[in-house]
Design goal:
This protein is of the alpha/beta class and about 210 residues long. It contains 6 helices and 11 strands. It has a single domain, classed as Alpha-Beta Complex (DHBP synthase), CATH 3.90.870.10. Strand 10 and strand 11 form a beta hairpin. The termini are far apart.
Length: about 210
């Protein structure tokens, strides 16, 4: 049975955030709110937690996982970024974007796209997510919570509880959110590519 925390979306209770961080550090899988619906998260290095997330979403090894960061200070540690790409990312974060970049050797191989050696990087525009990452003091492995057979990210934490209370360790109820996933921008090559049009405005990348 998972923990279920009602967290204030604008002034998250530090006690609840601390409990969620402790669960992540102990190898747990958490459901938490972002600016584009709910997401699943765990420690970057935790293989078992990642496997649990893959089972929940029925993902294969071709899936692009995302490293969720509190800000851009960790960007160069996990991704190789040219100056032009960095400016685009800086000008549009935090926000509802996932940026695909070439991964550095610091990224666990199981998180990379196996052929292209890329990784998704994201800085969410959501107070609960940012507080969680700030207190954790490290990025999380993350993926949008899109249940098998669905096309949209989950937006109703009560429904998430019904589906996943025995599959995850903690659910942070941060309100009812939009259902659209992030806009995915590929900056791994010279030309910028819009891979998915989601909740982030694509005009800065066209």
């Amino acid at each position: 049975m998972s923990q279920f925390f009602y967290v204030h979306p604008e002034n998250p209770q530090s006690r609840l955030i601390q409990q969620a961080v402790a669960i992540v550090r102990q190898g747990g899988v958490v459901v938490y709110p972002t600016d584009s619906g709910y997401a699943l998260g765990c420690q970057l290095e935790n293989k078992q937690a990642l496997e649990r997330i893959c089972r929940i979403r029925r993902l294969d090894d071709k899936h692009n996982f995302t490293i969720m960061c509190r800000d851009l200070s960790e960007l160069s540690f996990y991704a190789r970024v040219e100056n032009t790409a960095y400016r685009l990312i800086r000008n549009n974060t935090p926000g509802s974007y996932t940026f695909i970049l070439k991964a550095t050797k610091e990224v666990p191989r199981r998180l990379m796209n196996s052929k292209r050696k890329t990784i998704g990087i994201r800085v969410p525009d959501n107070r609960i997510a940012l507080d969680l990452l700030e207190l954790l003091e490290e990025p999380m492995m993350s993926t949008s919570l899109i249940l098998p057979g669905n096309d949209f990210t989950e937006s109703d934490p009560e429904a998430i509880r019904d589906h996943l209370e025995h599959a995850v360790d903690c659910i942070l109820h941060g309100g009812y959110l939009g259902e659209q996933p992030t806009t995915v921008i590929d900056l791994s090559e010279d030309a910028t590519q819009i891979l998915r049009r989601g909740s982030g405005d694509v005009s800065p990348f066209e």
